[in-house]
Amino acid sequence: MTRRKTHKQALTRVASAFNSMLKPTLIACVIAGGACALSSIASAQNAPAQDPFPAQTLPPGHPAVQQPSPQSLAAEGVRTSANIARGAADICHIDRVKIDRFKVMTRKSFPAAPDFDGEWNLGYTEAQATVDRFAAMKTNNPTEYAKETGEACPALTQGIDEVTK
């Protein structure tokens, strides 16, 4: 199995765990062209108005159905990875060295990303609302905080370990 395929499979598992931990903040983990993309509710709320004829209502292959470019899929993969890294570091307290290795592997796995560092920084910044929500939960509802982090953090740790082997 290639390193890239292994990273994408592990990233999918990590993103799934992260998505379950952050269900109020992150709304989807969509596998498209091998890149996992988590979209934040805030991003969705700031997006332009919905197309009155969304792509899923058109038949496959219809000329109006525009497929994402490899570059845009790679950029989404980088932002997703950065979101995961931020949660892993700030919520699950995963070692900074592992996070740095995760970033290196992400760079190798998404070579088509046109601006890796810019996308990484954006994804890392987008996770701030989640970090803030968990900080508040830790103070206001420690039982729920323990439950959510207890479910997701071991999966995040395992997934990052798999990616960075």
Task: Provide keyphrases for this structure.
165 residues, mainly alpha, two-stranded antiparallel ribbon, 2 strands, 64% helix, globular
Helix and strand element order: HEEHHHHHH
Strands, count: 2
Euclidean distance between termini CA atoms: 13 Å
Low-confidence stretches: 20-53
Question: Would you kindly provide a written description of the structure presented here, covering whatever features stand out?
Answer:
This protein has 165 residues and is mainly α. It has helices at residues 3-21, 41-46, 70-90, 96-109, 116-126, 128-140, 142-163; strands spanning 26-32, 35-40. It has one domain. It has a two-stranded antiparallel sheet with strand order 1-2. A hairpin with a 2-residue loop joins strand 1 (26-32) and strand 2. Helix 1 (3-21) crosses helix 3 (70-90), helix 1 packs antiparallel against helix 7 and helix 3 (70-90) crosses helix 5 (116-126). The longest helix is centred in the C-terminal third of the chain and has 22 residues, at 142-163. Residues 20-53 have low confidence and may be disordered.
